[in-house]
Amino acid sequence: MTTEITTFDEKDFKKFLEDKDFSYLYAFTTKERDKEVTRKLTKVADYFENEPIVLVSDIANTKFPYLSSLRLDKNIIPCGVFLAKLNAFIYEDKYIANDAFVDLKGILSFSKKELLEKISDEVEQELGERTNRVSSLSEISTESIEKMKVKQRAIVYRKMVRGETLSYLLTLDPIKFKREASYEMYYHYLTNPVKYIREFVTNYIEQSPKAIKSQLARIAAEKELKRELLLDERVRRAIKAFNLLHNQLETVLNVTVVTVAGQRRTVPNEIEIYSNKVRVGSIHNNIEISEIAAFEHQLKTYSILDDTMQ
User: Fold this and answer.
1) Which phi-psi region, left, alpha or beta, contains residue 56 (left: φ > 0; alpha: ψ -120 to 50)?
2) Most buried one in 38, 149, 161, 263, CB count within 10 A?
3) What angle do CA 60, 86, 120 make, to 5 degrees?
4) Element (H, E) at 47
5) Each residue of 128-176: pLDDT tens digit?
6) Of the candidates 144, 166, 141, 278, the residue with the CA atom closest to the CA atom of residue 222
7) Burial 214-230, CB ≥16 within 10 A → b, else e
8) Burial code of 118-134, b = ≥16 C-beta within 10 A, e = fewer?
9) Which residues, in sequence order, are bridge partners of residue 81?
10) Positive or negative CA dihedral for 139, 143, 145, 147?
């Protein structure tokens, strides 16, 4: 649902946030489903680490409801937190749609979702940059790498055929990261972003030894798998075939396949990648990649064989 803001004034809103009079409400009008609605914001203040913070709430009903229908969780809705020292307002994600708090000029404003994604991206980058250092300080057993190779082989095979990049960097566990999310996180990040990110990553590495070792084993396993798979001539053919069918022959509905035996056969321009093989064509009309030497289209031949095999 689109909400149109009709009377929101940033200067008045900032005055409301900074005013010491907590009986002072800030009201603005929105248009929702072609109906004008008056939103009223109230606030309470407290201190965190000796710095003032203001909790802003949205009084959803402009008229006080009957006691029989009063529900504080429905009638008074948390809206956001103003960090006075940082001149920053962090608002709940449900307010993104109405644009009232987006791109304020005199106040730093973020939705919780926006700020969390920003922190996550920076943590991910810092963690990735520490991969080599962490790897040099860790001992990963051959057994762990071999087990991970079995687990990751199909994934690496598919990514290589599709031309997707394999990441050899440590990554953040998104579930564990979201558990850490809080207004306290946002406060410390905005106070000193560089320091917070460095300390967060250091703590994450120290507190997640099993997860870090598992990732290092995955990285080592995927590097070995890539080297091994590239030695397989069928894999090299599959990579060439996928690239051809999704680039030069992308608009061709049916392709002519030239087999290793010199026969010609027409199949749909589809390619299926399984755990250890690749087939070109449909379910009922296909050919295994090891049997294909080239594709033909409009009197032009596209070989997928290695130069030494042609």
Assistant:
1) beta
2) 161
3) 80
4) strand 35-48
5) 999 999 999 999 999 999 999 999 999 999 999 999 999 999 999 999 9
6) 166
7) ebbbbbbbbebbbeebe
8) ebeebbbebbbebbeeb
9) 55, 90
10) negative
Structural element, H or E, at residue 125: helix 112-129
List all residues 6 or more positions away from 263 whose beta carbon is below 8 Å from its beta carbon. Answer: none
Q: What is the mean pLDDT of residues 2-16?
A: 74
Round to whole Å and give the CA distance between 121 and 167: 15
pLDDT one-digit tens code per residue, 72-104: 555 567 889 999 999 999 998 887 776 778 888
d(CA 81, CA 183): 8
Contact residues for 122 (Cβ-Cβ < 8 A; gap 6+): 193, 197
Tokens 């690496």, residue? Answer: 156
Q: For the chain, how many residues are written? A: 310
What does the radius of gyration of the chain's CA atoms come to, in whole angstroms?
A: 29
Q: In this structure, are residues 24 and 2 in contact, taking their beta carbons and an 8 Å threshold?
A: no
pLDDT digits (tens, 9 = 90+) for 68-79: 555 555 556 788
Tokens of 175: 């579930």
Structure tokens at 86: 């940082």
CA distance 274 to 204: 36
Amino acid at 202: T
